[in-house]
Amino acid sequence: MKLFTKLKVTVVIVVVIVISLAAWAGYAIGLSQGKNQNINTYEECAAAGYPIQDSYPERCVLSNGTGFTKKVDQPAANQTFEGKVVCLPHKDMDGPHTLECAIGFQTDDGTYYGLTTNETGGELSMAAGSDKRYKITGALDETPSDKYQSVGTISVADYQVL
């Protein structure tokens, strides 16, 4: 008889624990769904700490499966520049520096830009220091160089000797 009473008490305790866990889980799910409802952009999703997928463009996914894709800036429109191909001067002229030539472009107004081009060993690479003038068309990334006097980098799409 005592064994039967202990068994009933154990069953009641287990049932109470299971009901409590189920109630807690339901409450937690309700909270997370409420939290998801306030998120409407990639930035909000990322700021809330949801996982970011390793993709391009990046994607943030909520616990309910809703995803938000990071907006990617459109590539810059091509612009045209006139000037000379040069070796970019270093920013720190006081300390020692190597003799490498970082190919760049100096416009007629004296502004320096870095150059990226898909030509290997081509005319632009060999033109640094010459007196030839060029017209270069390309997209400008306005991120200044940390090492060289350059206000940005031109991705060369086309060029011609003037």
Quick synopsis:
By secondary structure, the protein is an alpha+beta fold. Helix content is 28%, strand content 28%.
Indicate the multimeric state.
single chain
The sequence of SSEs as H and E is HHEEEEEEHEE
How many angstroms does the end-to-end distance come to?
A: 108 Å
Number of extended strands: 8
Radius of gyration: 31 Å
Shape: rod-shaped
Observed structural traits:
162 residues; 28% helix; alpha+beta; three-stranded antiparallel beta sheet; five-stranded mixed β-barrel
Describe this structure in words.
- By secondary structure, the chain is an alpha+beta fold.
- Helices cover 28% and strands 28% of the residues.
- It has 3 helices and 8 strands, in the order H-H-E-E-E-E-E-E-H-E-E.
- The strands form 2 sheets. A 5-stranded mixed beta barrel has the order 4-5-6-8-7.
- A hairpin with a 4-residue loop joins strand 5 and strand 6.
- The model has no long low-confidence stretch (mean pLDDT 80).
Layout of helices and strands, plus pairs?
Layout: H1 2-37, H2 42-47, E1 52-53, E2 59-61, E3 67-69, E4 78-87, E5 103-107, E6 112-116, H3 123-126, E7 134-141, E8 153-161
Parallel strand pairs: 6-8
Antiparallel strand pairs: 1-2, 2-3, 4-5, 4-7, 5-6, 7-8
